[in-house]
Amino acid sequence: MSSWIDLHALWRIVLVGVIAGAGLPAVFAIGLRALAIGTTEGQGEAKLGSNPVGVAAAGVCFAVVLAGIAWGVYMIVDGT
Amino acid sequence: MGNDFLLVLVVITALGFDFTNGFHDTGNAMATSIATKALPPRVAVAMSGALNLVGAFLSLSVAAAIASGLVNTGKVTLTVVFAGLAGGIIWNLLTWLFGIPSSSSHALIGGVVGATFAAAGSDGVIWHGLLSKVIIPAAISPIIAGIIATLGTYYIYRLTRGVPDGARTRGFRVGQIGSAAMVSLAHGTNDAQKTMGIITLALIAHGTLPAGHQAPFWVILCCALAISLGTYSGGWRVIRTLGKGLVEIEAPQGMAAESASAAVILLSSHFGYSLSTTHVATGSILGTGVGRRGATVRWGVAGRMATAWLFTLPVAALVGAGAYGIDHGIGGTGGDIVVLVLLLAVIGAIVVRSRRTPISHDNVNAEWDGDAAPAVEAPAPVAA
Description:
Distance between the termini of chain A: 25 Å
Strand content of chain A: under 5%
Number of helices of chain A: 2
Distance between the termini of chain B: 39 Å
Helix content of chain B: over 70%
Largest interface: A-B, 43 and 55 residues
Number of helices of chain B: 12
Structural class of chain A: mainly alpha
Number of strands of chain B: 0
Oligomer: heterodimer
């Protein structure tokens, strides 16, 4: 079986892929949500970032996403 | 010493293939950003081209490995490589004409395998390697990418419920550009290496380089430039199918799709699992359509693509085998020239045919009407 399908590589790709490929966008979404604390549906974006706690939380989320991107670039340069 | 004329021909043809690889795959990175208007079309292709260039230089551990494990490299001659490249180029252009995203790696592998088969018979082809390294991953990778994109899309929409629409779209456009940039970078690294590997293989077959040698700098430079220019030229027909035809995409979906593609492409090359960027990108875009409630997914378009994928290897192989047969049958430099003239004639015919229904940055986002080419309002053709 595994001479046909490289299961060893596959399960890692799925696991890390879900964390990086779906998890990071979700963290980004949380950041956006935090930035929008205090706004309600239908408002423009003028009120974005009006809550300092929300801004701080958003900062943490976006930092996590940037770290994920940096890790991806490192993986390329590192010589795959 | 081998044949100098043929070596030059192979290098030029390989760079030509690299160019088609670039423009065929622009859509993998940029189709969603263009469809959601996160980036103007021409800015998108320029950015993707530049990142492909950077990506091609990022990872320099270039192996001449494209064909190893798939064909018996001892049987690979310059003529085989030339015929294989002809098969790859013709398949890439044909699928581009119909606006079908299909794997450039499969086209190249198909061409080389077909030519090797014609040259050395069944012994020249490593069937087990072909199945386990090419065919099975092609079936699995779009499913993995699709599942990741579905999950990402679902959570993104759940988590941003209540965020004002305008703010959400703007935020995700930024995220989308970032994730598309990663896909472009990864594409430059992965796909430019394939042509670098082919040229290195040709240099070794010719005797210019000792066996097992790394790609010389000029090869890396030329391949990086060729794939980057190809990307910049924009395969608008394929971009249109991926961005408009498959799923109607919103900015959050675009980010989910590109993130899933970037993650799967980078991880699989990290873990040494070979797959096609095109299959991954298509799977991701489909997944993002499944993950958003109420999104339109055109399964008919997806089915047409999947059918084309099934034909990629055999048709490219047939063309590669035919090109080898003609070249070898006539023999010598005369055979090479005949194949070159035939190749140029087919390329010319396809380009002329494409001018009848031009797709460019002007109409790439026109409403989808069941076909890659927009029926009306076709503007003056722009250099494709």
